[in-house]
Amino acid sequence: MSGNYYDRQLNEVYFREIELFANCAEEDAPTTGLMAKVEARIPPKLVDSMDEAFYLAFQMLFEKGTRLLRLTFPEKRLRGERFIREYYLKQDPNEERILSFHNSARTGGIVNTVLATVEGFVMGLFGMGLPDIPVLMSLLLRTVYTTALRYGYRFDNPRERYYILLVLSAALAKDSERKAYSDRADQVGHALDMDEPLRFDLEEQMRETSKALARSMLVVKFIQTTSIIGVVGGVQNFSASRKVATMANLKYQKRFLLRKKAEAQI
What is the pLDDT at residue 91? Predict the structure, then answer.
């Protein structure tokens, strides 16, 4: 019977995913008017600088920053809460207990979005565009890490980091690339959960994800470096963090439900 609960929740996840990509397609409509003119004036060197800034942020945070990022959230408490939810779910599987994982991750995503928004407004007030990137990336990764914890997944090994890069790309890439990254994330998540062999190049994916994120924020980061109108950085950070929180919750929830469904059928 518990398998039916997981099926219903998975159907809800699939529906939310279709709706999410439909909404994203509207957001990705070609820019017109003032924003299009601004985009046309962005110097190529700034494009390259943003690509490099995102890449260096990934390098720093993945190689040296994970230990420091761990200090910014209550890892032990989150693990403990997840174990308790797992225990009660195992004792009596029902939709309310399954949804408790999703609700916990959604609440955490809201908190992280607020932090990213405040950070963007503060940096924007001082006209700081590129210096904002490592801080923003820290907050986005914090969102993904805490979401992973709430569903019982690791975030500190190369295979899971590769998955995280795909989730970030699915959240922030443009047009059809977003769906392609989403499908790749699902394939990689399945391979990880089934402990299947996985060939990947973490360095190459960091470069690829850096370009996707840089393109999604290019216009706003350019504006943010020019004048007091840089407060739009707060709006941009809100949008980016909300998208990442939504996608991370969706992807980890899907992995969780598929795993639990498989366990229930054993």
Answer: 84
How many angstroms separate the CA atoms of 218 and 215, rounded?
5
Report the 3 state secondary structure along 77-90. HHHHHHHHHHHHHH
CB atoms within 10 A of CB 235: 14
Question: Which candidate, 182, 169, 188, places its Cα nearest to that of 240?
Answer: 169
Residue with tokens 């994203």: 24
CA distance 106 to 100: 10
Task: Report d(CA 14, CA 23) in Å as an integer.
Answer: 14
Q: What is the mean pLDDT of residues 124-145?
A: 69
Q: Encoding tokens for residue 135?
A: 């801080």
Other Cβ atoms within 10 Å of 115 Cβ, number: 17
Residues 6+ apart with CB under 8 A from 41: none
Q: Determine the Cα angle at 179 with ends 3 and 209, to 5°.
A: 115
In tens, the pLDDT along 108-117 reads 656 555 454 4
Identify the pLDDT of residue 33: 53
Nearest-Å Rg of the Cα atoms of the chain is 19
Residue 27 pLDDT = 61
Is pLDDT above 90 for 190? Answer: yes
Band of pLDDT at residue 240, cut at 50, 70 and 90: confident
Asked if residue 259 lies in contact with residue 151, where contact means CB atoms within 8 angstroms, the answer is no
CB 184, CB 33: distance < 8 Å: no
Closest CA to 120 of 245, 244, 233: 233
Q: How far apart are CA 230 and CA 74, in angstroms?
A: 32
